[in-house]
Amino acid sequence: MVSLLVWDDKAKEGSDPAEFRLYQTEGMVTDLTIYYTVSGTARNGYDYTPVKNTKSINNGTPLRIYPIDDKLLEGDESVTITLIDNPAYRIDPDNSSKSLLIQDNEIPDIQFIRPSGQMQKTRKVFIFMNSETVNGTSRNSGCSLKRLSPS
Question: Which of 35, 40, 71, 128 suits a disulfide with 78, CB 3.0-4.6 Å?
Fold first, then answer.
């Protein structure tokens, strides 16, 4: 039986990979080839280094996701691995599909500071995500801020 687990559930663009692990929980076979799909909001080969749809595993074989620092403000994105049935193995139904996040490093830190000794009115701030189409695919390309008058 084959199981998929998340070993490290968060990657960060430019610095930190994330990791799935593939396990054989019964009937150990050396270099068993596992088949899976790769999906999610992050795109394979664009938001992270290319991941093939097969892997030869022993017990606890890592499947690492290395994010690509793309310099776009796009927010966090997901990567999902889903095991595919094959006559060579059975799939653990509780551990057949798992997801992890790639954290965007272009998201600015926003701080709201109240000057000491002064009263400050509450202001509403909205962030609008801008999108663009690249090669027929819609992508977030940045954001704009708009401050509304105090209500």
Answer: 40
